[in-house]
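Project standup — Tuesday

K.O.: blocked on the structure for the chain from last sprint. Re-posting the sequence here as requested.
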Amino acid sequence: MTKRILALAGMAVMLAFGGEVQAATQSATASATIVTAVSIANTGSTPLAFGTIAPGATAGTVVVIPAGTRSGTGGVSLVNSGTVSAAPFAITGTSGLACNITMPTSISIASGIYSMTVDTFTNSLGATTVTLAGDGASFTVGGTLHVGADQASGSYTGTFNVSVAYN
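H.V.: unblocked you, prediction finished:
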């Protein structure tokens, strides 16, 4: 009887799993396109320069636009000396590709223990996205300097970063 049960169990297994197995294979292509890495450089030695400023009894601002000219508001007087300029940058990369330009929200410039804030950075492209032509694009960056009431005298300096990345 045990032999009969084992034989029946073996037949059941063969019937359950004894069918023909079918399989199929399909291939696909993999590809990649490598482009020139995007980069940015501060061209020349021209900084974002707000020039010489005389503070007043009230706070004010000095705005350097990307064209490199300045204006003042509030209690600041613009002294007709010193360099005034927007900072020039050049992007290199693959022509026809779009890039995002990122500028800081604000930075501090300092002279010893005293500081001022620079914000509202703008660029001469008028946008934060540019499509590269001829393997590059050039632009200048301006900003707004906040001068405190009776701001301490000194030569104030600081750095800021501008970055680019392909979209």
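K.O.: great, moving the ticket to review. The helical segments are 2-17. The first strand starts at residue 39 and ends at 42.
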